[in-house]
């Protein structure tokens, strides 16, 4: 079966899925920060985020990393959280307000068309966002423009499917059941930047220098496989996008198979889903 990839339609669907999943993604915030915390801190370290920094957060989602950046920059800094989904940004803004972080701003923006002042930021960060951009070159060009000379970029992505069973198992099951072909090279997806040197190459192509990367083991720990299924079923927009072509009963069958397969990652101490992240960085 030949499927023509339509970037505009993909982004419309992505926005709709995140609008729907926003509340759930926010509700899973504590799990997200425990799971992604080490990679987030490394991202902020390598982006040089510190007191007084002006930070642009691209594809910010519900803003866990936004808040971490805001705590670092203090009252003299500034953090602009951007996302394609206004619903999820409302959660980010509310959490920042509740935490008393008055330096956080939010703005609905397409990460591929960053309408921000050129050379206005010291750091650009993106946590698990760049992988879902159809035009990554355009997105990185916009991030490059947003940085001042000497400013730094850092991003978190998944590595390869074989190192991320908590996510690749559901993806493979849904792809088979929905009869979806594998993504073509360059198309967006959870593992689209995970190959050795791929993200680093994209950063260099965008003009960044002193590019580097580090692998971060990040197992997803939950009480049971059923909790992982609930987490992904409630809040993983990419999986919902892939399931869209199946009837409700077929979707239920897919989730049942996913739960059965993920149970292989249960042990005496609960569920530990394999996950490996890459943090990459560069300098303008």
UniProtKB/TrEMBL annotation:
Q: Which GO terms describe its biological process?
A: methylation
Which keywords belong to this entry?
Methyltransferase, Transferase
Which ranges carry the Methyltransferase domain?
A: 55-151
User: Matching InterPro entries, A to Z?
Assistant: Methyltransf_25
Keyword Transport among UniProt keywords? no
Does NAD show up as a keyword for this record? Answer: no
A Pfam family of this chain = Methyltransf_25
**Name recorded for this polypeptide:** Class I SAM-dependent methyltransferase
Q: Which organism is it from?
A: Pseudonocardia oceani
Query: Which lineage ranks, top first, belong to the organism behind this chain?
Result: Bacteria, Bacillati, Actinomycetota, Actinomycetes, Pseudonocardiales
């Amino acid at each position: 079966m030949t499927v023509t990839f339509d970037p505009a339609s993909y982004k419309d669907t992505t926005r709709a899925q995140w609008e729907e999943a926003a509340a759930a993604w926010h509700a899973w915030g504590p799990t997200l920060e425990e799971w992604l915390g080490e990679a987030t801190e490394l991202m902020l370290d390598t982006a040089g985020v510190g007191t007084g920094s002006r930070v642009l957060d691209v594809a910010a989602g519900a803003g866990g990393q936004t808040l971490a950046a805001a705590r670092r920059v203090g009252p003299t800094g500034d953090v602009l959280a951007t996302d394609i989904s206004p619903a999820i940004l409302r959660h980010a803004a509310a959490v920042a307000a509740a935490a008393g972080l008055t330096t956080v701003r939010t703005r609905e923006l397409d990460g591929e068309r960053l309408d921000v002042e050129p050379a206005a930021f010291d750091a650009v960060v993106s946590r698990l966002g760049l992988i879902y951009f159809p035009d990554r070159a355009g997105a990185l060009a916009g991030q490059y423009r947003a940085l001042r000379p000497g400013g730094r970029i850092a991003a978190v992505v998944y590595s390869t499917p074989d190192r991320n069973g908590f996510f690749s198992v559901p993806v493979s099951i849904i792809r088979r059941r929905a009869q979806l072909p594998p993504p073509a090279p360059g198309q967006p997806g959870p593992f689209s930047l995970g190959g050795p040197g791929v993200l680093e190459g994209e950063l260099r192509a965008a003009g960044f220098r002193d590019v580097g990367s580090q692998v971060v083991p990040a197992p997803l720990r939950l009480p049971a496989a059923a909790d992982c299924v609930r987490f992904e079923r409630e809040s993983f927009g990419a999986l919902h996008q892939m399931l869209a072509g199946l009837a409700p009963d077929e979707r239920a069958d897919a989730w049942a198979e996913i739960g059965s397969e993920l149970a292989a990652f249960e042990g005496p101490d609960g569920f530990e889903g394999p996950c490996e992240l890459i943090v990459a960085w560069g300098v303008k």
